[in-house]
TrEMBL record:
Membrane topology: Multi-pass membrane protein
Gene: MAL
Record-annotated MARVEL domain positions: 18-151
Recorded GO CC terms: endoplasmic reticulum; hinge region between urothelial plaques of apical plasma membrane; plasma membrane raft
UniProt keyword terms in alphabetical order: Lipoprotein, Membrane, Transmembrane, Transmembrane helix
Family to which the UniProt record says this protein belongs: Belongs to the MAL family.
Organism: Propithecus coquereli (Coquerel's sifaka)
Predominant location: membrane
Keyword Membrane: yes
Protein name: Myelin and lymphocyte protein
Length: 153
């Protein structure tokens, strides 16, 4: 396949231009809010272990994958190949769906724990839900603009 630049489409940035291009600078915000979700879920008490397990899996998976993609983009491992644009769009669509499901389940678990749990755990879970929805929004916005870039490549 020809590089996206040769075919007139948009390409993925490399080097530190990742931090100055949209939607790629969203990697940093996804990293921060995903890390906050991971920390809050790990330190809180969730009454339904399967929910806590799923939210932990999603937050750790997306944190590690986002970090790996960010590093690969910074070192320029994509080499301008259009297959990386497809990978970027696919990853962010999957991460959006994962985070949406984790956010909804965590909100449901938090509603269930309103009575009978200590105030500290309840507030930690509220914070985790808020940050999970912020992370969901970031991944959705990144997915939409990655799909637009994919379509034009």
């Amino acid at each position: 396949m020809a590089p996206a630049a040769a075919s007139g489409g948009s390409t993925l940035p490399s080097g530190f231009s990742v931090f100055t291009t949209f939607p790629d600078f969203l990697f940093v915000l996804e990293f921060v809010f995903g890390g906050l979700v991971w920390i809050l879920i790990a330190s809180s008490l969730v009454p339904i272990p399967l929910v806590q397990g799923w939210v932990m899996f999603v937050s750790v998976f997306c944190f590690v994958a986002t970090t790996a993609l960010l590093i690969l983009y910074i070192i320029g491992a994509h080499g301008g190949e259009t297959s990386w644009v497809t990978l970027d769009a696919a990853y962010h669509c999957i991460a959006s769906l994962f985070y949406l499901s984790a956010s909804v389940l965590e909100a449901l678990a938090t509603i269930y724990m309103q009575d009978g749990f200590t105030f500290k755990y309840y507030h930690e879970n509220i914070s985790a839900v808020v940050f999970a929805y912020v992370a969901t929004l970031l991944y959705v916005v990144h997915a939409v603009f990655s799909l637009i870039r994919w379509k034009s490549s």
